[in-house]
Amino acid sequence: MMKASAQTHPNIALIKYWGRNPNFPSHLNIPTNDSISMTKETIHSDKSNIELLTHTTIEFSEHYEDDEGFLKTETDLIPFNEFQMKRIKKVVDPLRRLAQTVLKFKMVSENKFPTAAGLASSASAFAALTTATSKALKLDLSQKVLSTFARLGSGSAARSIHGGFVRWHKGDSHETSYAEQICACNEFDIAAVIAVIDRGEKAVSSDVGINYAHSSAFNPVRITESQKQAKKITKAILNDDFPTVGKIAEKSCLYMHSVMMTSEPPLFYWNPGTLSVIKSIINKRKNEETEFYFTVDAGPNVHCFCRMEDLDLAHTMLRDMGIPERNLVRVRQAEQGSKVVEQHLF
Ligand code: ADP
Ligand code: DP6
Q: What separation in Å is there between the alpha carbon of 18 and the centre of ligand 2?
């Protein structure tokens, strides 16, 4: 049977990826800079009903006349549209070629959290798809090689192959643009509360918005600084130096959003709630010397980083700002990014 399933956690970038290197074909998703992330899972004591996990099943068979894919929601099975299928095949086609098969596939995937809302569904989705496809096709690929194939679906997916803290090397070819773990779970004490400001789909997906990065005059500065930040933050993570990690992560986030806001067309992923949470985090740090730091991806939702022992404090601060409990997600590092599982979705 050529059928397999995988489960994968999304990741949150501390050093952001925002731009493909124009010297390489764009379908390879070779980035302009290294990026660093934490693979994250939900701590199940919260009331958000959001589990940061994607579950994907894929089967290759002569019974399928065409490739087909479906997004499973609580109530429906929604076929992926043409554009989404094209993206799925960016991962499946090269793996199918490697396995020397022309068999068609059926794929079903479920995100246990909002899709396309800035919570990195594309990261966990394409890492899960890569892991499941490679298993179904009986390819015996290392995690490093899997990360290069996941990258073809979505850049940030390369990082979700691994658990803990992960660095995606920009590289200069398909093979050298891979992700590797830099620090296993529990070696660096960090947790976060995500303030979900909006669960809805963002107006401009990362896949599209990222193409505008080069039109910002600030982009060259962001690229140069990102390489320096990646070096410094790696050292700080390995030294368990939380304030340095937090400050660099905030800088990287602000550099990325500065590029977004000054690109053509300009992209404003924040909304007023985003800025309120950012200001509260900064004020709390200033007035009470609390070690809280923020980051925001391509969406309005804010991650408030803290030490594990301060999770309740961060949660209370965000709740007291009026963010409903169901929109507060407590997260920690996930030990494993992507793994093969026995449960199939069909
Ligand atoms: P996010 O912030 O959630 O990553 P993006 O706009 O970057 O948002 O990515 C959303 C896109 O990723 C979707 O439009 C779809 O193409 C793809 N995607 C999301 N979830 C899945 C899934 N489970 N399986 C396959 N593709 C998915
Ligand atoms: C803001 O990986 O979603 O989350 O490669 O086009 O799919 P594509 O982009 P994607 O971009 C992620 C951007 C980010 C920052 C990050 O995760 O590094």
A: 6
